């Protein structure tokens, strides 16, 4: 592990802290390695910590009443998660699963609460993260209520491209390993429906894809079909 201060400085919500403050924060952080497929916590378990991704990628999901998985969002390097429990004690509202081998920073809420009392700017940054997550959740609810499966898929592809898109000569590559089943779990559809829709988009030369990656070749048409 590289110098703790350098690691913490790369986390957005801690980026404005000086060396002395980073030293104080480093004293309360535990770094832990996780292998792909492991769970960091499960939905409804008692929650008492804030987490951030130093390396790797995490999937946050909820279990629906019928037992199906609904993927809320993905958390990448430099991002925090489970931040809501810092301000509202209770169980974890979702399950956190490791998508790739990862190193996770863990700060117990009681320790972070003491730190934040003297660093209100960091508290504000965490609240802004919560606000963005709330807006995304509201958009997901809107899409599930108002759009058909095809529209939800278009909306999700545009969102993933905005978060993980990488420009290539062929188009915009969604740089995240994502199976068709996981994509289906994001939009509340069956894998077979998603597979048919992706193949239709491929035939229309809007996207290209393989088992894990999606390349958007015509973003304008994708956005038009999203509406």
From TrEMBL:
SMART domains per the UniProt record, alphabetical: cNMP, HTH_CRP
Segments forming domain HTH crp-type: 147-220
InterPro entries, sorted: cNMP-bd_dom, cNMP-bd_dom_sf, Env_Response_Regulators, HTH_CRP, RmlC-like_jellyroll, WH-like_DNA-bd_sf, WH_DNA-bd_sf
GO terms assigned for molecular function: DNA binding; DNA-binding transcription factor activity
Keywords carried by this UniProt record: DNA-binding, Transcription, Transcription regulation
Entry superkingdom: Bacteria
Any GO CC annotation of this UniProt entry: cytosol
Residues covered by the Cyclic nucleotide-binding domain: 13-133
Protein name, UniProt field: Crp/Fnr family transcriptional regulator
